[in-house]
């Protein structure tokens, strides 16, 4: 662009007859510096503008046909394209003063006024359009980046949720089945009439686990192998009684007490409360050596408090595993909190419902 502007500006002052050396020099200064306009815009802008103004003022009116301000027009375009708003305003004022001076002093006619004003406005408009297109492309890239980050965050959040569900289902169901299976031979010898119930409980627990796992795997594949399982909601507080009954069949004394008016809660709170109770029972059966578990559901106008307390030996210091981490994440996802007292073992969750 600089080479074309230089040739187009210098050629008329050397062809068909060579003009004075100072005019050739001004022509070079009015065009060649645009090669550095994007690195040093304002120095180039001043040099090109001054040289262009000097050529117009020093030429006789009959020779002004030699001049076409290509360099100044390119600088005007670049000014509108890459400058800040304040510098653009200053540049417009400077260009306006220079253009008016080159028109008024030589006493140009109205046609020249209109022509010069049109080409400068067109150059500035083209620069503004280039800046707007670049800003639009930048905004589109930023929007695409944010969408990609949002998708990645959603995928990570969904993976975490699925991991929690898988852990809760597998550890609880398999742990309960192990406890019942280990007690099976003893029941068969001491109380044969209860053996069928124990084995039925193992089968029910396995079927429930398989159903929930099938639902989760269907979500991972993007389709549900079993449509009925795909439509089946995750268990909530309504399924707690079935959960407690299975725990009792394993030989654990479980007691549930509710205080306050039972209320309809959001789905995430419903599922979180169930999973916290489920994971607490799993930990009790696997690690606590307890014989009794007390579960308290306390309802208020703004929150539901879930407390699970056993009479096991507890631990001197808590080392959170996946289950404890999952319970805390479920509570925090709902905007609630979870506290654990390892001496006992007591789990207390406060879930907002108001």
Molecular structure report:
The protein has 354 residues and is of the alpha+beta class. The chain is 65% helix and 10% strand. It has helices at residues 2-14, 21-29, 41-58, 70-82, 85-104, 110-190, 195-221, 227-231, 240-249, 267-288, 322-333; strands spanning 253-259, 292-299, 303-310, 337-341, 346-352. A five-stranded mixed beta sheet has the order 1-2-3-5-4. Helix 4 (70-82) packs parallel to helix 6. It is rod-shaped and about 125 Å long. Residues 224-231 have low confidence and may be disordered.
Main attributes?
single chain; 354 residues; alpha+beta; 5-stranded mixed β-sheet; 11 helices; 5 strands; rod-shaped
Q: Helices, strands, pairings?
A:
Blueprint: H1 2-14, H2 21-29, H3 41-58, H4 70-82, H5 85-104, H6 110-190, H7 195-221, H8 227-231, H9 240-249, E1 253-259, H10 267-288, E2 292-299, E3 303-310, H11 322-333, E4 337-341, E5 346-352
Parallel strand pairs: 1-2
Antiparallel strand pairs: 2-3, 3-5, 4-5
Helix pairs in contact: 1-2, 2-3, 3-4, 3-5, 4-6, 6-7, 6-10, 10-11
Alpha plus pi helix count? 11
How do the strands of the widest beta sheet line up side by side? 1-2-3-5-4
Number of strands: 5
SSE succession: HHHHHHHHHEHEEHEE
Quaternary organisation of the protein chains: single chain
Structural class: alpha+beta
**DSSP helix fraction:** 55-70%
Biggest sheet overview: 5 strands, mixed
β-sheet strand percentage: 5-15%
Low-confidence stretches: 224-231
End-to-end separation in angstroms reads 67 Å
């Amino acid at each position: 662009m600089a080479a074309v502007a230089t040739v187009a500006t210098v050629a008329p002052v050397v062809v068909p007859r060579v003009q004075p050396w100072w005019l050739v020099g001004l022509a070079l200064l009015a065009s060649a510096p645009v090669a550095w306009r994007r690195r040093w815009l304002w120095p180039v802008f001043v040099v090109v503008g001054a040289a262009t103004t000097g050529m117009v003022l020093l030429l006789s009116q009959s020779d002004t046909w030699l001049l076409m301000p290509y360099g100044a027009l390119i600088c005007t375009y670049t000014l509108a394209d890459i400058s800040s708003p304040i510098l653009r305003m200053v540049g417009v004022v400077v260009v306006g003063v220079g253009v008016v001076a080159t028109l008024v002093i030589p006493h140009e006619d109205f046609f020249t006024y209109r022509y010069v004003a049109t080409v400068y406005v067109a150059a500035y408009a083209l620069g503004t359009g280039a800046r707007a297109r670049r800003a639009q492309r930048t905004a589109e890239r930023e929007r695409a980046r944010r969408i990609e980050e949002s998708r990645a965050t959603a995928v990570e959040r969904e993976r975490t949720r699925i991991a929690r569900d898988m852990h809760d289902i597998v550890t609880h169901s398999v742990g309960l089945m192990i406890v019942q299976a280990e007690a099976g031979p003893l029941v068969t010898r001491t109380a044969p009439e209860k053996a069928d119930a124990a084995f039925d409980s193992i089968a029910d627990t396995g079927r429930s686990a398989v159903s929930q796992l099938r639902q989760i795997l269907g979500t991972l594949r993007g389709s549900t192998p079993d449509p009925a399982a795909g439509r089946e909601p995750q268990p909530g507080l309504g399924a707690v009684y079935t959960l407690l009954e299975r725990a009792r069949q394993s030989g654990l004394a479980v007691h549930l007490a509710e205080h306050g008016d039972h209320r309809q809660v959001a789905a995430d709170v419903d599922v979180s409360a169930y999973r916290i109770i489920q994971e607490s029972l799993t930990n009790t059966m696997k690690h606590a050596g307890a014989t009794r578990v007390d579960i308290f559901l306390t309802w208020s106008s703004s929150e539901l408090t879930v407390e699970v307390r056993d009479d096991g030996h507890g631990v001197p210091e808590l080392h959170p595993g996946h289950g404890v981490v999952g319970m805390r994440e479920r509570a925090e996802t709902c905007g609630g909190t979870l506290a654990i007292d390892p001496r006992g073992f007591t789990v207390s969750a406060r879930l907002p419902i108001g």
